[in-house]
Please model this.
Amino acid sequence: MLNIEINGKPFEAKEGETILEAVRRAGVAVPTLCYLEGLAPTGACRICVVEVEGMPNLIPSCSYPVGNNMKIHTHSARAVRARKTIVELLLADHPDDCLYCVRNQKCDLQTLAADLGVRDQRYGGEKSTWKEDLSSPSILRDPNKCILCGKCVRVCEEIQKVAAIDFIGRGSRTHIGTAFDEGLNVSSCINCGQCILACPTGALRERTYIKEVVAALSNPNLVPVVSHAPAISVTLGEEFGLPAGTDVDGVMVAALRALGFKYVFDTSFTADLTIMEEGSELVHRVSNNGKLPMLTSCSPGWIKFVEEFYPDFIPNVSTCKSPQQMMGAIIKSFFAERMKLDPKQIYSVSIMPCTAKKFEASRPEMMNNDVPDIDAVLTTRELAQLFRMRGMDLKNFQPEAADTPFGERTTAGKIFGASGGVMEAAIRSAYFLITKKELGDLNVEAVRGLEGRKEARVNIDGLDVGVAVVSGLGNAAKLLDEIRAGRNDLHFIEVMTCPGGCIAGGGQPLETDKAAIRERMKGLYKLDAEGPKRTSHSNEYVQRLYEEFLVKPLGEKSHHLLHTHYAKREVML
Amino acid sequence: MSDTKSKSGCACGCGTDSVCADFVAALTGGGSAALPEQQAKLRREDVVKPVIYIGAGTCGLGAGAKKTIAAVKKYLDDKKVDAEIVEVGCIGMCSSEPLLDVQLPGQARVSFMHVTGDKVEKLLDVVLAGTLPQDMVLGQFRSDKVKMWPDVACLDEHPFFAQQTRWVLAQCGVTDPLSLAEYLAFDGYKAMAKVLKLNPEGVCDEMEKSGLRGRGGGGFPTGKKWKFARAQENEQKYLICNADEGDPGAFMDRAVIESVPYRLLEGMVIAAYAIGASKAYVYIRAEYPLAIERLKVAIAEATKYGLLGDNILGSGFSLKIIIKMGAGAFVCGEETALIHSIEGRRGMPRPRPPFPAVKGLFGKPTIINNVETLANVPPIMLAGAEKYAALGTKGSKGTKVFALSGKVNRTGLVEVAMGMPISTIIYDIGGGIPNGKEFKAVQMGGPSGGCIPLQHVNIEVDYESLKTVGAIMGSGGMVVMDEDNCMVDVAKFFMDFIQRESCGKCIPCREGTRRMLEILQRATRGRRNETGVDALERFRGMVYLERLANVIKDTSLCGLGQTAPNPVLSTLRWFRDEYEAHIYERRCPAGVCQELRTFEINQEFCKGCGLCLKRCPSGAIVGELKKAHYIIAEKCIGCGSCVDVCKSGAVQLVEMAEDTIAAEASAEAVS
Model:
């Protein structure tokens, strides 16, 4: 324990913690722009500077360790003046277009300027002008709004091990860009959108499809259909002031109908379907000496990552399409047939926690007779925006049930939204598929939680199965490297691109932090604990889909509609 | 050590095949009886045939030494003269290059200055015949072994050298940089041999006792720094030699490497031994090709004779030195940015702590010393810390090398004991200001430093005292400025440099230096086309300039950012009147700032040649041939091309009365 003094009050600091950690524990708010929880501080923004008695200069609290008897003044006139000047300097090279900005009222820079009382442009001068990068189907970049805090660079490199972007140039010509300053679309960017969550300003945003969706909703010749991902109902509420993890499934369905969607489905249904297909594929691989370990294929960022960085593992990736694409394929085949609709008449929208899903929906593999399986993808943030645009507040709706047949789900499909959920659902059903008996305790605690890697061994009828769950592609890369180096005790690996899974996806509310993710995860497992049906194979409508249309898992129709293949991808690394 | 003997001899081909091996053997207690004789020969106390030395450092080559060398070779061939040519490094007198020395058998070595290729034949004709052309003689080397030339001053009495204390530069420009044998003959590697027998803690102690402080600019006590790394328990530690000399006007590191590369290597082995590093890097800018080439040869030679590499001198200590070329980013001279650069990452500083001595290159304990610091190490270890500490002031021991440049008669590298008044360096060693102009200021420490004005020119060279007047020791750049220099322009030059070279990481440095530069640019922009809003911006900028500068100092991430506003703050402190003249009176007292000056043609002197009319880029000059010309003030952009071409001195700067300008300025502001 170290005895320090914060703004004149004694405080006990822990050995090894930074000044910022100590003062925040003491309940003092020191602003930051480049600080990233869990990563080594870079000390770039200097907003967090504080005055420490005896030190000649102001001290960056994010990187400086506390020392015994340190006397810290977090808001001395000198520190506040420095912060204000720094914000003024940033504003001097920032477009004055807050009213038009995607991050208006959700911008750290704007908040700081307001808090510090910036009322005048004292350091006027030339502003840099940069070209926007609008090349990606998922993520748009506006370097004019970039304050070069470097958080996106660090998330991309240190958490995702993708390193699609980095600093380029020196002095006031410094900017962030891809290799050779090309568009994101030809870079190694996997579209995960973690950079958007990290960005303090409007420099990074998702490509929005609100306009297209609104147009489709008002087009009398189209039948608008929507499907929402498992992770949406426990995060959307935050956009409307509800605590993280609150399940808003019913009211969301009602609101989606109010928007004008003719049918509202639950992507958790195709999550159940995925388990039937993927579970069968695993059983097939194990019993036919197939390529192992099998890797999940639900997360489109991860798929692009494999194509670019680990193409030798493509044979290990499950051939199943993701639940979004299964839903799209089933809607435009089975559903269209039943409703006697031309697939071209259906406008299929999916609500996803993810920016990479936008990219996935645009992949050529995800088309059938030149008709895309999914027409538009909206993120959680965009859906909230759309609701607000229409003056809709979730609190004013009465819960409604989704449409059958694809609105029916088990909670096994629902927990797909958290890292470990796919694995848990798969174990429950694989046990049943092999033994024809239900797993005694359906809770597989070993694969739950926020850790980057979770491993377990499962005994299925005498067969010892090794499973691993990783989230965050840096963790995936580490595991793949181990396997490349000869590790061979694993049969099935779940990989989620975003750390914590879809509840922490790049399309989720901007307030996504560790605490929020934890609550969202709790919300999902609470639903599962209380759910009437907790295994994918017990989803009657999935069973009926097989009986009436698909025939059997891994059958010919499934093969055509629900499975695909990936190939090595050449990008600029 | 007999196994290290080699037939190929030194890289310079001086025919000392086994000599190096003998010297090396002597370092560990062996050696042959013929050694003293060899030593005398290699030291060239006397010679058997004429020896011609040519200064072939980058400075010499820049002045034309290559042509001099070719001319000497041709002369010797044509006249069938049997003489030896030795290419040496830089002795420091850059303004007298190319330098050529001649040593005749039985005679002292004499230096001649400004020996360009065309002068070689005439010079050698008379010198080899035994007479010295007095107008070219710089001085002779003092010797008690051979006959001194009558009526020729000794070099050490020359005002440039008389007050110098040459510790680091001792052999610079005297010996062949590539000859290991010569280096050994001048007691080279004796310090290393001595150190390898001591315990490393003792070496750190000795270094601390010497009082040597980092010569790269920071001035941190070297021995103390070594002890930090020594105390770290780690199987891998690194030593880095920082040769990323980036300050405009500093070139001592380049000269040391080009002139005595073995000295640096010896210093590095000692430092690495003291801290326990087995691998060392020399981070050197790629713009120094000659230094890199010589360093490479020196590393190969030293490794061949067991003075580097595995099991140095049989001591069990090993050191591998790797040359890493930098791409010329100023910020890579900052130690954490330098580490990033070696690691293959973008050269950007990171916050400290952890300090590199604890967690540096590849996460291992690392010590970074500058070239001059390391070159100081062998003589300190050989002569003893006390002897070194006897030089200098209380807080700043020993000597410091300065790169003297700018408006001074004798430019070059000088090494003086700490505590010498700056005026002595400028007036006695440097020979004062050329053309009878007035001294205005001396800029010290490059972009991180500041200007010292006339009233403080007697200040002593010392880390602490320089700080009191807003300057720093820095790496030792010393740029002298006279009445023709505009201090606002000087500040603008440095701000421009800094804002371009800022790594772009931290906001105050990246954005702040850019705005500071803009404020200075506004102050020096002409009244032509200036609107009321522009004028307001100009005043507003000045109001906030100091506040901005202080925040940058207070909050920047690395030392370069923290010192970035110094050129502005120090000129503002001592030359506020010049700033005020620019801003309020819209004139540049020194007549430097282009947009603030106007020229006129003196009708009496103008011969009507028309040269200025042809040269004027803005068509501001009118006139008929052979009749006096005129300048249309509204069109004149103040570039001064007309002044440069006028042969009759008719074009003159308009000295506007201060009140007229002020009146005009306020009239414009109102309109």
Remarks:
- Chain A touches chain B through 39 residues (CB under 8 Å).
- Chain A has a mean pLDDT of 96.
- Residues 152 and 195 of chain A are 4 Å apart (CA to CA).
